[in-house]
Amino acid sequence: MSKKYTQIDTKLIHSGEPTPRILGAVSMPIFQTSMYEYRSGADYHDIKYIRLNNTPNHIALHTKLACLENAESALVTASGMAAISTTLLAILSAGDHLLVQNCLYGGTLDFITKDFPSFGITYDFIDGNDPESWEKKLKPKTRAIYVETITNPLLQVIDLEEIVSFSKQHKLISIIDNTFASPINFRPSELGFDLSLHSCTKYLNGHSDIVGGAVIGSSELITQITHKLNHLGGSMDPHACFLLQRGLKTLGLRVRQQNENANKIAHFLDKHQAVIKVNYPGLPGNPSYRRASDLFEGFGGMISFELHGGIDSVNNFFDKIELAIIAPSLGGIETLVTRPAATSHAGMSYKERQQAGISDTLIRISTGIEAVEEIIADFEQALG
C-alpha cells in the first residue's frame, strides 16, 4: 500500500497509477490481451492471465482500492454478487456457520438462504441493534459475521462498533458490504472490519455503464479469496477495469454532492403531506442519526419512503416523474427511483418482505448529482 498520499481525494487520482507512466500515457491504458508471456517456475496463481485477476489493469485497481480504505490489499471481480459469493465460499466450508444481519440486499439474502444448504453451510440471522442476543446464536463452527454499513432498502445503521468487538472476542471474520457508504463516507478497516465488499457497479464507478465488485482487506484473506475467484472465474475484464479506474477518480466529488442532495431531498419529503415515512440516517429524528453521525463522514445518497394511498399512489408517482429515471440500480450520477419489492428484493416472498419491514409500497431513491432544486421540483410535481 502506498504511503505517499494521505488525503483520499489525492489517492483517488494517483494511487495505483503506474510509475513510470506507460509510454507517458496520463491515463492507464487498456491491456486488451487475455494472456502474457510465461516463464517457468511461477506459481499457478501468478501466471499473468485475465482469469487470474493479475493483469496490469487489475493490479492498478487493487492498489488504488486498498489505499482508499487504508487496507493492505484488494481484489476486483466481475460483479458485486461475484465479490459476495466468492468471499463467503472462500471463508466458509461445509459444516461451517455464519451469523448474518437480518436486513440485507435481496441478492445476498437469496444466496445465503437458497444456496448455502447445498454447500452444507448453515446460518442464523441476528438483530444488529441487540448485541446481547448475538452470543446465543453462536455455534462451535461459527466462522464469520456478515453485515451491511447502511441497509438496503431501509437505510438502517446497526451497531457496527459492537459487531467488530464481538467478532474479535469470538475470533470471527467480520465482513461488511460497504456499497451504500463508499470509502468517502466510511472506511471499514479503520474501525477494525476484516473485509469490506463493494458492488463497483454503484458508487465506485458511478456512471451506470459497468457491473463489477471489489473485496478489500488483509493480504492474507484477499489472497485466499483471490485463489477461490481464480477457480470460480468471476474476473473483471480489462475494459471494465479501465472504466472503473476512470470512474473512481471523481468518487469524492460525486459522493459529496450526492450526500448534500440526498439530505435536502430527505428533509423535503419528511415535510410533505403525501409522505408517511422517510428512511434516511441524516434526518435528526431517524433512529440511526446519532450512530451515523459518529461513524460516517456523510449520510449517503440513498433514501427510501412510503406514501399515503397505497400502490395506486406509488404508480401515480412513477407515472408523473419527469427528471428522475425509474431503474433498479443505484450510485450513478443520475437520480433513480425504484420499488424494491419489484426489483432488488423481488426474490423474497411477500411474507419475508413484510418481516423485514419492506412494504410493497416502499420507494427507494438513488440521488444523482443534478441540481437539487430541479430534483425536488420533479418530486413535488409528481407527488402533487
Give an account of the 3D structure:
With 384 residues, the protein is an alpha/beta fold. It contains 14 helices and twelve strands. The chain has a seven-stranded mixed sheet, with helices on both faces. Helix 2 packs parallel to helix 9. The radius of gyration is 21 Å and the shape is globular.
Number of helices: 14
Shape: globular
Indicate the proportion of strand residues.
5-15%
Instruction: Give the topology string: H per helix, E per strand.
Output: HHEHEHEEHEHHEEHHHEHEHEEHEH
State Rg: 21 Å
Largest sheet: 7 strands, mixed
Helix content: 25-40%
CATH topology of the largest domain: Aspartate Aminotransferase, domain 2
Give the total of beta strands.
12
> Structural class, judged by helices and strands?
alpha/beta
CATH architecture of the largest domain: 3-Layer(aba) Sandwich
Provide the residue-averaged pLDDT: 95
Question: How are the strands ordered across the major sheet?
Answer: 1-7-6-5-4-2-3
Any idea what the CATH superfamily of the largest domain is called?
Type I PLP-dependent aspartate aminotransferase-like (Major domain)
- Return residue spans where pLDDT drops below 50 for at least 5 consecutive residues: none
User: How far apart are the first and last residues' alpha carbons, in Å?
Assistant: 52 Å
- CATH class membership of the largest domain: Alpha Beta
Number of domains: 2
Detail the topology: elements first, then pairings.
Elements: H1 8-14, H2 56-68, E1 73-77, H3 80-91, E2 97-101, H4 106-119, E3 122-126, E4 142-148, H5 160-169, E5 173-177, H6 182-185, H7 188-191, E6 195-199, E7 213-217, H8 219-232, H9 238-248, H10 251-270, E8 275-279, H11 289-295, E9 302-307, H12 310-320, E10 325-326, E11 336-338, H13 350-356, E12 363-366, H14 372-383
Parallel strand pairs: 2-3, 2-4, 4-5, 5-6, 10-11
Antiparallel strand pairs: 1-7, 6-7, 8-9, 9-12, 11-12
